[in-house]
Amino acid sequence: MYNINYMGPITKDAKKLMKEDYKEVSDPAKADAIFIRSKNVLNYTFPDSIVAIGRAGVGVNTIPVEKCAKQGIVVFNAPGANSNGVKEMTIMALVFSQRDIISSINWLRSIENDTDLIEQVEKKKGFYAGEEIRDKSLGVIGLGAIGGLVANSAVNLDMNVKGYDPYISVSHAWGLSRSIKRVATIEKAVEDRDVITIHVPQKSDTLGLVNKELIRHMKKGVVIINFARGGIIDEDAIMEGLNSGKISQYITDFPSPKVMQMKNTIVIPHLGGSTIESENNCASMAVREVMNYLENGNIGNSVNYPSIDAGICRSVRRITINHLNQPSMITRFATILSTNNVNIARLYNNSLNDVAYSIIDLDTEIDEITVKALESVPGVLKLRVLEKRA
């Protein structure tokens, strides 16, 4: 039986994926795993019982992922699950960047009670005439799950598209239209573009990615669209660009007190992935990832632990060990098991930065003394003993 705690709403369809082996508990201290939608837990102290956190979304800036790693807690997210929702919002923003739709609607509402409304519409609609996105140039920063969809859609709308992503995966690269020109530097991606759209995760190396120096490489009158994360943008640089006319418009999904005071902005209340389909996809992906980890020890789409897939345990027992990435750990584990007459059937190991993870399938039972000996190895963060499942 696995105990689950929900820190925030999770869709009913996602919850249905967990059958009789899962029980909801209100106290996180009694839970094996926690699911989070948008709650900020940066200052939360996680109880020792927690082995996994499932983020029903993509961004993990509200979760202390490094602290969790050192506590042996695997943090999962749902990359790509909300891709279509964010793509559609970005395409909407592309249209809004060229057509003054919002101002025209606001103006029309302001004269809704005028008796000569129809005459005024015909007389003044020209003030809101815009341009078409066809043949406009677009620079896409980040060609992953969302950026790739945006770039392909823009090509289908007859835009001239350049993209930049030094870390693009093989699968995402194969999915890109051949009409998209990939460039080697971010400066090349922005230097001659009418519109720039950003689709990279917020990490230490992307904070303030769009700054004064990068804006200096953009053409005068550029439109910047941000449906990635607020911290990727240097807000002071954006404000300066808007005030000088270097940036003609900034469209963002991330309100802040400073952004709300900027001119020539369209600010949306973080609705990019807020569709029924996206929220259900994100929650369902997070649930499947956590279930696979709890039941089989496998890790996929973790932000703080390496990916590793040992399949379903078909041996007598499976042990999983979260540990520091330091020399001789595997040797120590093997020595303790051998000394206690426990035979290793298969062993899987992978590392990510300062932490590592091992899955060891055993041909024989393991007793509590041996478990305690493994847990006492310096550098071991968390150990679990899993049952045979097939």
List the total number of helices: 14
Shape verdict: elongated
Task: Specify the CATH class of the largest domain.
Answer: Alpha Beta
Annotated CATH topology of the largest domain: Rossmann fold
Describe this structure in words.
The protein has 390 residues and is α/β, with parallel strands linked by helices. The protein has 3 domains: 113 residues, 3-Layer(aba) Sandwich (Rossmann fold), CATH 3.40.50.720; 185 residues, Rossmann fold, CATH 3.40.50.720; 83 residues, Alpha-Beta Plaits (2-Layer Sandwich). The chain is 32% helix and 21% strand. A 7-stranded parallel beta sheet has the order 8-7-6-9-10-11-12. The chain has a 5-stranded parallel beta sheet with strand order 2-1-3-4-5. The chain has a 4-stranded antiparallel beta sheet with strand order 14-15-13-16, sandwiched between helices. Helix 3 crosses helix 6.
List the helices and strands and how they pair.
Elements lengths: L1 E6 L4 H5 L5 E3 L8 E4 L15 E4 L9 H6 L3 E3 L6 H16 L2 H10 L6 H8 L12 E5 L3 H12 L3 E5 L5 H5 L6 E2 L3 H5 L4 E4 L13 H5 L5 E5 L8 H10 L2 E6 L4 H4 L4 E3 L8 H21 L20 E8 L4 H11 L4 E9 L2 E8 L5 H8 L4 E8 L3
Parallel strand pairs: 1-2, 1-3, 3-4, 4-5, 6-7, 6-9, 7-8, 9-10, 10-11, 11-12
Antiparallel strand pairs: 13-15, 13-16, 14-15
